[in-house]
Amino acid sequence: MGLLQLHARTMSRLVATTILLCLWVNSGHCQQNPGFASPVASVDTIVGQPAILRCTVKNRGDARLSWVKNSIPVSMGNDILLADKNRMSLINTGRQYDLHITKTVLEDEGTYTCVIYFSSGYNSSSGDLTILVPPTVQSMTVNGQEVGQKVVVEEGTDTLFNCTATGKPVPNVIWKKLGKHGSVFFQNSTVLMSNVSRTASGRYSCLASNNVSPTHNRVVDFEVHYVPTVTPRRSEVMAVLRGRTSLKCDVDALPAATQLDWYKDNRKISLGRRYESTGGTTGTLVLELADVRDGDFGEYICRIRNSVALREASITLYEVATLPPTTPGYAELDVGSGHRLSCTCITVLWMILVTLILQ
Question: Which domain holds residue 62?
Answer without folding.
Answer: 24-131
